[in-house]
Design goal:
This protein has 125 residues and is α+β, with helices and mostly antiparallel strands. It is built from two helices and eight strands. An eight-stranded mixed β-sheet has the order 3-6-7-8-2-1-5-4. A hairpin with a 2-residue loop joins strand 1 and strand 2. The protein is rod-shaped and about 90 Å long. The relative contact order is 0.20.
């Protein structure tokens, strides 16, 4: 009887002291929290606000990546617009506040997140 108890104790001790393996996460997402353009070292967040009057072209998307880990701080970067997409100023709006791009045949506003924060601003009337 004591041999059986000793065997069980040894087996339980061996199982308890074994190397614990962490389970692999099912999936890891490196996707972005929102669509953006990074222009002149400033992040501009895409809105659905349509811009009526654009200004001059001010840049072009140089790098595109869907994976946040593949992003770069060099040049003009976007996770929403392909390389070659033109960026415009907005009439009577400082580029320190907002910029515009064409999306689905309309001009849409992107706002400066470093100046206004990450939360989408309320629509202008």
């Amino acid at each position: 009887m004591s041999l059986i108890v000793l065997t069980i104790v040894i087996l339980l001790w061996g199982v308890g002291c074994g190397k614990q393996v962490e389970p692999e996460p099912e999936s890891i997402s490196n996707s972005w929290a929102f669509e953006l353009i990074r222009w002149h070292d400033v992040t501009y967040r895409l809105t659905d606000e349509v811009v009526e009057s654009i200004g001059e072209p001010i840049g072009v998307v140089e790098t595109y990546a869907l994976d946040e880990l593949a992003s770069t701080d060099e040049g003009v970067f976007s996770n929403a617009f392909i390389v070659g997409t033109r960026i415009y100023s907005i009439d009577q709006v400082s580029t320190e506040d907002a910029i515009a791009v064409e999306q689905d045949g309309k001009w849409v506003r992107l706002f400066n997140t470093e100046k206004f924060g990450w939360k989408l601003p309320e629509k202008r009337s």
